[in-house]
Amino acid sequence: MNLVFKALNDATRREILLLLKKEDMTAGEIASHFNISKPSISHHLELLKRADLVSSTKKGQFVHYSINTSIIEDLLQWIITLKE
């Protein structure tokens, strides 16, 4: 869970998750929404993957990224237990 919180601690990574919530995207498509380098986007995607917030699938020559909602559901369930 520490990796999840570390990944969510960055505004760029949170914005990437919002983009992926709408649709699966390639790294290039994601990068077009930001004013930072493609290697920086790749770094953010790698951290999101390590936290299991994002998964990737190779389709032809492109890698498509998608949000992993099950880890978010687990996180929300854990947060709800704090309120009880």
Explain the overall architecture:
The chain has 84 residues and is of the alpha+beta class. The protein has one domain: Arc Repressor Mutant, subunit A (Orthogonal Bundle), CATH 1.10.10.10. The protein has 5 helices and 3 strands. Strands 1-3-2 form a 3-stranded antiparallel β-sheet. Strand 2 and strand 3 (62-67) form a beta hairpin. Helix 1 (2-8) packs antiparallel against helix 4. The protein is globular and about 45 Å long. The two termini are 20 Å apart. This is Transcriptional regulator. Residues 1-84 form the HTH arsR-type domain. InterPro entries: ArsR-like_HTH, HTH_ArsR_DNA-bd_dom, HTH_MetalResp_TranReg, SdpR-like_repress, WH-like_DNA-bd_sf, WH_DNA-bd_sf.
Q: Which CATH top level class fits?
A: Mainly Alpha
Q: How would you state the average pLDDT, rounded?
A: 94
What characteristic shape results from the CA principal axes?
A: globular
SSE sequence, one letter per element: HHEHHEEH
Number of helices: 5
CATH H-level superfamily title: Winged helix-like DNA-binding domain superfamily/Winged helix DNA-binding domain
Q: How much helical structure, as a percent, in the residues?
A: 55-70%
Distance separating the two termini? 20 Å
pLDDT below 50 for ≥5 consecutive residues: which ranges?
A: none
Give, in spatial order, the strands making up the sheet with the most strands: 1-3-2
Bin the strand percentage.
15-25%
Q: What structural class do helix, strand and pairing data support? A: alpha+beta
Q: Architecture in CATH?
A: Orthogonal Bundle
- Per the CATH scheme, the topology name is Arc Repressor Mutant, subunit A
* Total number of strands: 3
Rg estimate, integer Å: 13 Å
Number of domains: 1
